[in-house]
Amino acid sequence: MKDLAFQGTWRTYQQKILDDLLDLIGEDGLHIVAAPGSGKTILGLEVMRRLGEATLILAPSKTIRDQWAQRMRMMFLPANVAEPDWISHDVRAPGIITIITYQALHAAFSGHTSDEETLDSEEEGSSGAQSSEQGQQETEKARRKIIAKLREEKVRTLVLDEAHHLRNEWWKALTMLKDALDRPTVVALTATPPYDVDPQEWDRYQALCGPIDGEISVPELVLQGDLCPHQDYVHFSLPSALEAQKLEEFRAEIADFIETLLKSAEFKQAILRHPWITQPIENVEHILDDARFFSSMLIFLNSQYVELPRSTLDILGVEAREIPDLTLEWIEVLLNGVIYTYRDDFGEAEQTIRYQQDRLREIRAVEHSKVRLTDPRSVQRLLVSSMSKLTAIVDIARLESASMRDELRMVILSDYIRKDTLPTGPADLSPIERMGVVPIFETLRRSGLDLKLGILTGSLVLVPAGSKRILDEIADHLGIGAEHIRYQQAAFDGGFISVELPGERSRSIVHMITELFGRGGITVLVGTQALLGEGWDAPSVNTLILASTVGSYVLSNQMRGRAIRIDPQKPQKAANVWHLAVIDPEKLEQRIPLRFGRKSTDRKAPDPFDTMTIDLGSDVDALKRRFYAFEGLSFGEPPLIESGFQRLMLDTARWNAHGIDDINRLMERRAIDRNSLKARWHSALHSKRAVARVQETLESNYAPKGLINWNTTKFLFAQSVALAGLIVNGFLQSFQEIRSPQQLELVLFVVFVSLAIFSLPGALKAGRLLLRNGSLEGSMKQVGTTVLEALHHMGVIKTELGKLSVEATLDQNGIIYCRLEGATTIERSRFLDGLREVLVPPQNPRYILVRRSTFWRLKRVDYHAVPSLIGRKREDAEYFAKLWNRYVGESDLIYTRSVQGRLILLQFRAKSFASAFTRKTDRVSRWE
After folding, report:
1. pTM tops 0.90
2. Is residue 472 part of a domain?
3. 696 within domain boundaries
């Protein structure tokens, strides 16, 4: 450790952490969250150096593992010094500093002879780490031997890079190691903690890494000049003609099946004879266990104009008019119950059920013994891997190439290599039928665009033949002689050569191609997200296309991090990040509706909370999830920095073929104006707050209290008044023809009757909402205070209550914004999770609060869930109820696992059938 010394200058936030290091490092070690490009690796090495003990560094991939060793040589050792022999990459022969992957640790603990299997799963079907097939005794023997070696080397520091990547078997190996080393100091570094996981998984993560000691956001880094201005764009497309035909054929088969099902008297009689329908009171216990299936039967029978027995409605606590329309989702629930879950209850109709099951199998609507009518996996796969995305990539490459010219440094990340699709010769122009690295490369090669194309994966490297001289210079600078590089001309095109480095030198291949890319020897580089999507350091990237299917919270943020780093050679850099999304044509506005029930794409009632008023399919849904992972610049005025899909401002978009083209043209116009992008970031970053930072907020259109919320209903009154005005104006035109008092009376009578007919429904709906829905800002703070104090009582929130405050504000659209001030990151996250469960309850809470009240002479019942984290123990739920009664209103705490409790829970769920006002919440991070 004495040989190590940092050769550079610390950034402000790095220096602050180092200055406070003694205070930050406690019994739980050090846990730092910092965005990609913030220098976490160098900070981790310095913390390791200051601790001064033998260290084991664990990384999630080979690329990041090699980066740790490279950073150590470049930043902590004198120039031109080779890697010291006291640095090891083999946990079986550890050194003072040992740098390995999580999989390598698991493999060694399992007794595998090779710890470097396919660490970067770049081919479809690659399974990564597998459980050892050796006997338990040999596995235990291998584990003890490695732990003995680490103890002999006196390893007392564990550096965990992006520990959220751990699979279960890797997690077990790391936990065993930590326990065996007897409380080593853990230094955990991550760009994106897994905030979106369930509480149990978070507890496991925090037990390993400790509580978060410091956090640095992307906007903060852009403000300090450590990340460049950047923007996310989406290129929307429709499936190819062949893909659309496949979708249409599948949907037509589904529609024909449902039409036949609805006409089947035998199937209808089978439902009518089910004991839950004929004897609901006697079967309440079973109904409570699966209220969703019971509801699906009632919905089906209601759609068949069957007069439902009063006893079935009483169990749900609803009227027949409140039963929702029959949809694909409800038919799916019904069929799964009839064909699989409760097959034995339909013994008399076995022949009918078998016939329906066979038909579903014929149309491929059964997956793993489950009926799938809504977005089955076959549809999801078709959308996510649509060939139209290849056309989109060519369009983006053409646009960015024309805009950036020689300055273009584009990276395209995909999931799989598809090496088997490489052409065998110049005349091999086989149709491209799958997404992947090689198909993307080949599509761009055939496009005729003036690009310097390259491929960088773990098993395939292709570069332009004209860039060989630059690559030789780079290799020579790294001490790699030409005799160690294997070049081979591509069989399909003499303009490309493959590159290989044998043996230990293979670790340098990523660095070499990255350097070639930075120098312009490659302007468009195609690779896998497994190899390049995380930890890969290429500051020259100014355009990124995410052709990966990944929608996960963590990996999406990691991939974006490749483009948003600053480039010392290009201080004015601004980066474009392109996302690809294929819209399900079935979901478009102008589609032909199915021949039953309600259209799945019917426009919803005006709702200022939701900027997307139409379901566009599973691929767009995955894209929306991806956008929750990071904060970015909004398209609105004035520009804001916030998370979520709504910042793209697509609320007025027309979702038809022409509208999609308009959206793409808008994205393209914005993408080529990088100078405006920098100015908008500058405007958004300079907040009015004394200390601007990222605030995480819960947005909601509902809060539990019986007060009047004029903002959320005034548009209904305004609508009614406006309509009335139009009617009056029309009749005023006829006043000129009135020639007697009798004629005037007749005109006025017609006017008022027309007003009553056309305006009263809207006014009544507005009034009903006033009675049914509470004031947003009037009670949100009390609800938030209830959640806060309950979590603090449980020890989930440890910050003193006196330093915390719940803030709630209401905007002009009737949306409430609530956040917790003064708390740590994870405390804010747990608070918002709990608050969200109160406002939009889960389907099966352990405890609920029931409040019965009378407004004028109208009786109402309100149900609210006790957050799952609080509801684990009865004493915590009772404390929450006590606080609720104090701050919100008198309510009864109901345990839903009892018979009576489940009956109340069933009625609670059923109330959502006829909800006049949909409860919605959303979590948004915003720079303020």
Report:
1. no
2. no
3. no
